[in-house]
């Protein structure tokens, strides 16, 4: 009976608009990831602290020590398949199911690029090093920007590019280590395996790239999650409160405060809003010529009821 219920839940989820929107987002995100890996890592054999980087090392070892080539896309597919089993068992189902899709299509996407748009077509025959941009540092910058953007977008919808993200989630859940620390340490270990196929210069570039990747992911994630913490003091606070609750569908906290200069008793409203909602609020205040003192600051992390508009509406009723 349990499997029947789970199956119905999956079918109901697939029938929603949210599922198809997220499917498109995940697909585009993984296409960007595949291009970043294949065109900016594979040619120069730059090893960044990711499963893709580890796959390049394994492929290079097979060719260098055993004399047979092994496609990077095949190695990625095998490693991700193993990690996905762990993700579904050890992490929540939504994350596991979404990551199954994103991780399993990465290898085939790179395979398509290998077959139909090989990077050799874009490298100059006069280039001293096999690099799309003609410079390892430019390749590194392009890779980090593309991968970090894709990772941040996928994290926002509770998905990931697979691989190292899965290991970090497992470590965070069961050992309670910070995810950023887990990703960095694992990434540096993977980078160090590159000594087997690359010289020290390339390994050091990879270590720097892994560190920059973490910083850029944090930046993009904070930008996508940024909200406005708004404080409002006004004699027309009830009109503002009604607009926030009924028109924007946000909760608002009310404080009784005392003016330090005037000594008058006042009411302060405090609310968390998205950028668009903050614009709507300011438009309402300006159009209705409401006299108010307003301060607003950025908040990058919000948890709990704030993000679920359906639950908020049901509670307000």
Describe this structure in a few short sentences.
The protein is an alpha+beta fold. It is built from twelve helices and four strands, in the order αααααααααβαββαβα. The chain is 63% helix and 10% strand.
Explain what you see.
This protein has two domains: 2-224, no CATH class; 227-316, Alpha-Beta Plaits (2-Layer Sandwich), CATH 3.30.70.120. A four-stranded antiparallel β-sheet has the order 2-3-1-4. The longest helix has 25 residues, at 200-224. Strand 2 (253-258) and strand 3 (265-273) form a beta hairpin. The protein has 317 residues and is an alpha+beta fold. It has helices at 2-14, 17-40, 51-65, 72-90, 93-116, 136-156, 164-175, 179-192, 200-224, 237-248, 275-287, 309-316; strands at residues 227-234, 253-258, 265-273, 292-299. It is built from twelve helices and four strands, in the order αααααααααβαββαβα. Helix 3 packs across helix 4.
């Amino acid at each position: 009976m349990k499997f029947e219920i789970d199956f119905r839940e999956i079918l109901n989820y697939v029938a929603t608009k949210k599922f198809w929107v997220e499917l498109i987002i995940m697909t585009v995100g993984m296409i960007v990831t595949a291009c970043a890996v294949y065109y900016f890592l594979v040619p120069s054999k730059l090893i960044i602290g990711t499963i893709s980087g580890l796959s390049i090392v394994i492929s290079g070892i097979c060719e260098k020590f055993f004399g047979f080539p092994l496609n990077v896309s095949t190695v990625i597919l095998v490693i991700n398949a193993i990690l996905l089993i762990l993700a579904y068992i050890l992490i929540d189902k939504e994350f596991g199911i979404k990551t199954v899709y994103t991780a399993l299509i990465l290898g085939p996407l790179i395979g398509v690029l290998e077959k139909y748009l090989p990077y050799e077509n874009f490298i100059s025959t006069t280039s001293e090093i096999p690099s799309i941009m003609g410079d390892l540092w430019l390749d590194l910058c392009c890779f980090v920007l593309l991968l970090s953007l894709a990772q941040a977008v996928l994290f926002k919808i509770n998905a990931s590019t697979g691989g190292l993200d899965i290991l970090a989630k497992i470590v965070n859940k069961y050992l309670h280590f910070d995810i950023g620390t887990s990703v960095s340490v694992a990434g540096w270990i993977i980078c160090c395996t590159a000594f087997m196929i690359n010289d020290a210069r390339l390994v050091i570039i990879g270590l720097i790239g892994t560190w920059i990747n973490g910083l850029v992911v944090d930046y993009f994630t904070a930008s996508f999650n940024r909200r406005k913490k708004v404080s409002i003091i006004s004699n027309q606070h009830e009109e503002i409160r009604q607009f926030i609750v009924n028109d924007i569908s946000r909760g608002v906290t009310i404080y009784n405060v005392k003016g330090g200069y005037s000594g008058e008793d006042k009411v302060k409203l405090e609310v968390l809003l998205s950028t668009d909602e903050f614009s709507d609020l300011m438009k309402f205040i300006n159009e209705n010529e409401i006299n108010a003192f307003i301060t607003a600051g950025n908040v990058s992390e919000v948890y709990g009821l704030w993000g679920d508009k359906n639950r908020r509406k049901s509670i307000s009723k």
